[in-house]
Amino acid sequence: MLADVTQTTETSVRGDGARPGSRPARRGPRIHRAWLVAAVTFVTIIGGAAFASLPGLLIDPLHDEFAWSRGEIGLAVSINMALYGLTAPFAAALMDRFGIRRVVVSALSLVAAGALLSVWMTASWQLMLYWGLLVGLGTGSMALAFSATVTNRWFVARRGLVTGILTAAGASGQLVFLPLCAWIVDEHGWRPASVTVALAALAVVPFVWLLLRDHPADVGLAPYGGEFTPRPEPARGAAARAVRVLLDAARTGPFWLLAGSFAICGASTNGLIRTHFVPSAHDHGMPVTAAASLLAVIGVFDVVGTIASGWLTDRFEARRLLAVYYALRGVSLLFLPMLLAPGVHVPMIFFIVFYGLDWVATVPPTLALCREHYGADSAIVFGWVLASHQVGAAVVAFLGGVARDVFGSYDVVWYASGGLCAAAALMALVIRRGGREAEPAA
């Protein structure tokens, strides 16, 4: 509705407490600038997420060309996923220190460099360096902590909805790039696909630099649905702050429950389906392009499910939503080994649609629980929770490849992941209620 994107009054708080040089709020445009910032963030995440489409597509081509084991390739993917998560909390603190634009432009450049350098690799250690280290650091700096920082600074109202929309950007990137990269790999080989990813990352740099703004006060506005606050001084000691927030959060029970359940979330999505679904389907005779298209369909319904989850998070208790999401995901994984076949049939389509709706529906309620328990530090706490998500993904990305090498099948991985999701549902249910809703983050 128009009311959802219209800020009718901007409140100036220019008083004795205002910082020198801060600008008073002015009446905003009919469409609040926060929505433009959210749109640029959405496009940026899509560009940075292009790399996430590649690992599952390249396992077989790299295995065939270089005779690297699936475990070696899975190790490179696991390094990428672990760094993606471990970088996130520091990236959130660096955004407070140096600004969102500088951090994101640097991150996009790292992704492009890693993707381009991989074209000339000849040894598995180079795969781990380019895919694992460079791309991992780059994508980690644009992880969900980026979305959390933008949401906390620019929005007071509609935070759950915006979180859902920005989280869906990663799925939208998968929707755009998976079929394209699958076709490129099939027709032209894996190297042109890697170059495509690099170009996608570089293409969004001008949008970030020209249109993204670090804080509403930079353009004299209040955050959407809130009151004007001057831009704070840059936060120094970014790394120390990230560690300090972790140590404080680690003394609380909800942090470990959120981190544990989100680790299982990462294991059962990025680590399992995104990395191993295509080669597993190919093992059963399904063409790579068909399997990649099914992953792209997951991306379609991921967008719907994540936005819907954001809407639900604004209205229902977050921990109960999480329990439902994890329980349903676990049940679906137990049925997957029976659905894999050379062709695409109706039960498989049903699984893909269902899994897409549930893919990252966990993010809005998880972020809401971080805000509820950790207030103004919630973006950094969520960064650490996201780190656990990626560590879980990294472990399964590696062990899934090892299991395929050892057992000749992925079945044991599907069943084990289904059991883990049941544990995550129980962990979500025992998270206690919090009492610190976030202030607008600095």
TrEMBL record:
It is a multi-pass membrane protein. It is found in: Cell membrane. It comes from the Bacteria. This is MFS transporter. The keyword Nucleotidyltransferase does not apply. Residues 1-12 have a biased composition (Polar residues). Keywords: Membrane, Transmembrane, Transmembrane helix. Residues 1-27 are annotated as: Disordered. The chain crosses the membrane at residues 34-53, 73-94, 103-123, 129-149, 161-185, 191-212, 254-273, 293-312, 381-400, 412-431. Residues 36-436 form the Major facilitator superfamily (MFS) profile domain. One of its GO terms (molecular function) is transmembrane transporter activity. The lineage of its organism: Bacteria, Bacillati, Actinomycetota, Actinomycetes, Kitasatosporales. GO terms for cellular component: plasma membrane. The keyword ATP-binding does not apply.
